[in-house]
Amino acid sequence: MKIIGTGIDIVELKRIEKSTASAAFCRRVYTEAELSYADSRGRQRTASLAARWAGKEAVLKALGTGLIGAMSLTDIEILPDEKGKPVASLGGATGDRARELGVTEVKLTLSHGMEYAVAECVLCGEASRLMAEEKNNDGSEAVNSGLADGIQITADLTAGLLAKRPVNSHKGTVGRVLAVAGSYGYTGAAYLATLSALRAGAGLVTLAANKSIAPVMAVKCTEVMPKPVAESAECAGALGMKSYDEIMSLAENNDVVLIGPGLGRHPDTCALVQSLVVALGRMEGIQLVIDADGLYALRGMSGLLKKCVNPAILTPHLGELAGLIGSSPAELMSEDGKIEKLAKAAGEKAMAWNAVIVAKSHRTIVAAPDGRIFVTTTGNPGMATAGCGDVLAGAIAGIAGEAVCDGTKGVDVKSLAAVLVGTHLHGLAGDMAGAKYGNGMIASDIIGCLPEARLMLEK
299: left (phi > 0), else alpha (psi -120 to 50), else beta? Predict the structure, then answer.
């Protein structure tokens, strides 16, 4: 059975509360059975209706149509089964469309927090993926940005990959992150990455900051713990080999070490990164997450990654991945937006380096050390904004301390579990920020949505 289409939608509860005050709106959107069920939910009525609105929109997106022609929202009825699981029944034009595509199963996940409701739909069937053959509403050919054999990163896949916190949890047991980040003029990257790690769920986040920027970071990061360390003897305002011993001492008390955001590219800084990767990669209790300038330091030195006890997590954008493999961005991404070449390159290098590679794109690729390719289903164009990558690296680092393996889902590497949850959480938070700010969102808007996005994943 193959995945034929996926869709996700997010809606603000306040918007639905206002709209459902109109009886005409309710008749146009919901069936009598859905309205009756929502009424039975009491104070949760608005949340129930909002979740169903998002569910219907997600189904239409998965069908590849949207609300056009004979499509009607009341042709999609979403009600719980005897166990409370949401089941979508498709009739009318939506049912016809599903049969044309060869859909045999509709998988639907609904969730809501205090402000938003979110839904994710995955259509399965025996037909091959049809996206490349579809047409846009104006008759032009639609772009297939998916992969026929890529595994979709969905709420169903990530469920169970995040440990449930015991009642006796404390800040030292739910993830301790050390960030080696920041330099003069690039304090924002360190700020975004560390705050993101906390918002994703880490209990303790420490920032190894060179002494020039430590006072600034102490003001910006009130919940993060900036630890002043020696700055480079060769480059003022940056880290270098002079801080190696201090950073190694700090790392001993942490589960995850994030290296790279805003570090700078001075040769002394690169030497520090390379030395840390060699030393920390040998420690069984440490998970390495390498981003941004940390990746630049590994150009021509990727062989160091093979020696890591735990597969390192790399989070390159197109240019960074191209630099790592000695290629160019144009060789990794087709002009029409297809991601097959990017997936192939990431997959090959993940196996060669024994690493988990998060190749950031309009549809982010996750390449596992065993060669499998995963593709995100969350995210939107508004996330093309400065600092979004720092937020992703921080979110993955913040999740890594609580990620767990699930052999039934083929996820038997903890670093892969952390990446699958972290990328899905990041995209979901981005979609929530997009629902409020559209293409005007900034990276900190995504951070602000991480807690509610995580809450939805945990339900």
Answer: beta
CA distances from 418 to 178, 267, 312, 439 (A): 16, 31, 11, 28
pLDDT at 62: 87
Pick the CATH number of 176-458 from 1.10.3720.10, 3.40.1190.20, 3.40.250.10, 2.40.128.90: 3.40.1190.20
Does residue 103 have a pLDDT over 50?
Answer: yes
Domain boundaries, the chain: 2-135, 176-458
Closest of 242, 253, 302, 249 to residue 278, by C-alpha? 302
Q: Which of 2, 18, 56, 61 is catalytic?
A: 61
Q: Is the pLDDT of residue 83 over 90?
A: no
Bridge partners, residue 119, by sequence:
9, 110
Instruction: Give CATH superfamily name and number for 2-135.
Output: 4'-phosphopantetheinyl transferase domain (3.90.470.20)
Name the catalytic one among 112, 266, 349, 360: 112
Look up 135 and say whether it is catalytic.
no
Per the annotation, the verdict on 112 as an active-site residue is yes
pLDDT digits (tens, 9 = 90+) for 213-269: 999 999 999 999 999 999 999 999 999 999 999 999 999 999 999 999 999 999 999
